[in-house]
């Protein structure tokens, strides 16, 4: 059972779950940025910008992993 769970991250399903959870985190960052702009809080706005950059980078890495796993898949190119 533990081996199945360990290999889940390297499966297509695991990558899709990671993509979805990372994209869901973008909602929180957008809310944080909106509140920071309303309050004119530059420090929280900078934090939101750094978090957004981390999310974009994470999504790019997960997309690359998905493409690597799906080299034989016609739909992924």
Describe the protein's architecture and organization.
- By secondary structure, the chain is an all-alpha fold.
- 82% of the residues lie in helices and 0% in strands.
- The protein is built from three helices and no strands.
- It has helices spanning 2-8, 12-39, 42-69.
- The mean pLDDT is 83.
* Rg of Cα set: 16 Å
Rough outline = elongated
Number of strands: 0
- What fraction of the residues are assigned to beta strands by DSSP? under 5%
What oligomeric state is this? single chain
Q: Give the low-pLDDT segments.
A: none
Distance between the termini: 33 Å
Sheet/helix structural class: mainly alpha
Please trace the helix and strand order, writing H or E for each element: HHH
Compact summary:
The protein has about 80 residues and is an all-alpha fold. It has three helices and no strands. The chain has helices at about 1-10, 10-40, 40-70.
Layout of secondary structure:
Elements lengths: L1 H7 L3 H28 L2 H28 L8
Helix pairs in contact: 2-3
Highlighted features:
77 residues, mainly alpha
